[in-house]
Every structure is written in C-alpha cells, then in structure tokens.
Amino acid sequence: MPAEFDLIQKYFACHEVKNPVTELGIGDDCALLSIPSGYRVATTVDTMVEGVHFFADVDPFHLGHKLLAVNLSDLASMGAEPVAVMLALTLPEVNERWLKGFSAGLMGLAQQFNVDLIGGDTTTGPLTLSIQAIGLVPEHHALLRSNAQADDLIYVSGDIGEAGLGLKIKQGYQTTYDDQAFTRFNLPMPRIETGLSIRHIANACIDISDGLAADLGHILAKSNVGATLEWDRLPLSQAVKEYIEDTGDWQMPLITGDDYELCFTVPEKKAPLLDCEAVYVGRIDSQPGLRIMKQKQIKPFAMRGFEHFAE
Ligand code: ADP
Ligand code: MG
C-alpha cells in the first residue's frame, strides 16, 4: 500500500504511549510489554468486515469506537484491566476523511481507558478491521464463564435491549427516543469499572453481545447449571418499555444484542459486597436450561439471539 508508513504515523503513531506496562510501542518489529508479577495476560481479538458486521455508509467515528469497545468489553467480562491494543487494517483505498474519523473514534476511547495502541498491520484489500486487546488480571481472579454455581444470584450491569431498539429504529420503527437508542447502538461503552469491581466477588461473567438469553446461556452451558430469570426485574429503559407496550414483543430485550452490559453471577453471601451499578435479574439453579418467570409462571426459554451461520 502506498505511503503506508505515513498513514500510520499521521493517524495512529502520533499518540504517545502512556500505560506503564508498555515498554515499547509502535515503530519496531514487535512491541514490548512489562507484565507485573502476580498477573495474567488476558487477550482477545475481534474482526469486523464490511457487508458482514457493518455497512459501507456507517460513520467511521462510530466504527472506530465500536471496534475498540467490543474488544474492551471482552476484557471487562474477564475482570481484566485494559493495557494495550494492536490494530490490523485492511483498506481498499486510502481515504483520509474515513481514516480521520475512524482514528478519532478509536483513539478517543483508547485514551479514556488509558489503553495504548502498540502496533498493528496495514494492507490493501476489502475493508476489514481487527483489534487485538491486551489486559491484566490478578492470577486466579479472571472471571470465567465456567464457574457459575447453583444458587448464585444473577446480575446485569445496566439496561438491556436499548441497542436492539436502536437497530429496530434503523429498520423503520418509530419512537421519540431515537437519540438515546442510537447512541447505545453506535457508541457502546465497555463496563471496565464494573469488571474490575466484581473480580473478587463474582463467580462467572460474560458481556452481553448477542442478547442476555444467548450470553447467559453460554455461562449455563460452560458451568453445567441452569437459571431462572425474573422478567419483572430486567432493567429496561422507558424507551424499551414503550416499545414492548406498543408491539407486545417482550422478548426483544432478551434476544437482541450489542448492549455490552455485563451479566455475572455472585454467591448469595457475597452479594452485600457488590459496589457497582448492577441489577438482580434471577438465580442460577442446578436444573439445566434457561427459564423465565413472567406473571408468576415459570416457562422454558429458547436461547435464541444473533448467531453467525444460523439458518
Ligand atoms: P513489519 O514489516 O515489521 O511488520 P510494518 O511496516 O508492518 O512492520 O509496521 C511498522 C510499525 O508500524 C510496526 O511497529 C507496526 O506494529 C506498526 N503498525 C503497522 N500498521 C499499524 C496500524 N494499522 N496501527 C498501528 N500500528 C501499526
Ligand atoms: Mg507488518
């Protein structure tokens, strides 16, 4: 790609490294990190492809923000503190207006969380964006999907279904709450603080990317347990409540994704230690499967939600 080096310099390498873990950032063959003893490296990667994960007309600022946010959200769900990211860019052409917006969205969020961009790769091809995120978590305290126990209480860190509503609005549903829902859909905030504050308290955690039912379902499957959610307890915004009253579609907040709230389970005796915004939504039980209690009736709930390659 022509002037690859100049592009990196102009839009990405111009930011100084700030996190004390970063020993060497962009500019050599590899970056170097200095890992404090007693910590584990938590690392994750996510890719977004034009036409699959986003459309050509999407605001590049939103794209840069969201690409980083979804990766940081994975660190949050492990209870890890973000340190650094690497960025692989495949670009069909050099579009400076696009690069400016994209890097502003990405680097703005990175700065908020003291995350350094420490390297990456830049090539030509169909628009494809990947970030690898790197974080630290104290040994033995990573929040795994596989550690939920029968009788744990289940919490979510904030309103669910709002990003899903944003998508419904984009698809033509009309409401007066457009801005709020669009913001949740376009500019999700990773719940890093929550992840850090629960890592000595929670048994299991996941971030809600595909909907509470599907993502809690991953915890249940990995932990060999089941759960009963109380529909009346779900934290829903006024906008989502109105949507449900309007359409009767009460399952929407359970099966739409992109909220990036955390769902975690806590042993009952540790619940008083919780020191973050979180709402109790149900309980883990030993009977496999997901159930939902609505109008005093408990019924099995199919774990739908968005899945790639699903029929
Ligand atoms: P190499 O040929 O050794 O892979 P590159 O020319 O690809 O080196 O990259 C030079 C430097 O710029 C490296 O430190 C690399 O990590 C960094 N870099 C390349 N592309 C990006 C990018 N999209 N974002 C951040 N850093 C990048
Ligand atoms: Mg390279």
Q: Provide the structure class.
A: alpha+beta
Strands side by side in the biggest sheet? 8-10-7-11-9-12-13
Percentage of residues in strands? 25-35%
**Could you spell the SSE succession in H and E letters?**
HEEEHEHEEEHHHEHEHHEEEE
Biggest β-sheet strands, sense, barrel: 7 strands, mixed
- Head-to-tail CA distance between termini: 38 Å
Tally of helical runs: 9
Query: What is the tally of beta strands?
Result: 13
Portion of residues within helices? 25-40%
Low-confidence stretches: 305-311
Hetero compounds = adenosine-5'-diphosphate, magnesium ion
Q: Return the average pLDDT rounded to an integer.
A: 93
Task: Report Rg.
Answer: 20 Å
Give a summary of the structure in a few sentences:
The chain is of the alpha+beta class.
Structural notes for this entry:
This protein has 311 residues and is α+β, with helices and mostly antiparallel strands. It is built from 9 helices and 13 strands. The chain has helices at residues 4-11, 60-78, 96-112, 162-170, 178-186, 192-197, 212-223, 238-247, 252-255, and strands spanning 22-24, 32-33, 39-49, 81-91, 116-124, 128-138, 153-156, 204-207, 226-230, 262-266, 279-285, 289-294, 297-300. The protein has a 7-stranded mixed β-sheet. It has a 4-stranded mixed β-sheet with strand order 3-6-4-5. A two-stranded antiparallel ribbon has the order 1-2. The longest helix has 19 residues, at 60-78. It is globular. Adenosine-5'-diphosphate (ADP) binds at residues 8, 12, 26-29, 87, 89, 117, 119-122. Adenosine-5'-diphosphate is lined by residues 8, 12, 26-29, 87, 89, 117, 119-122.
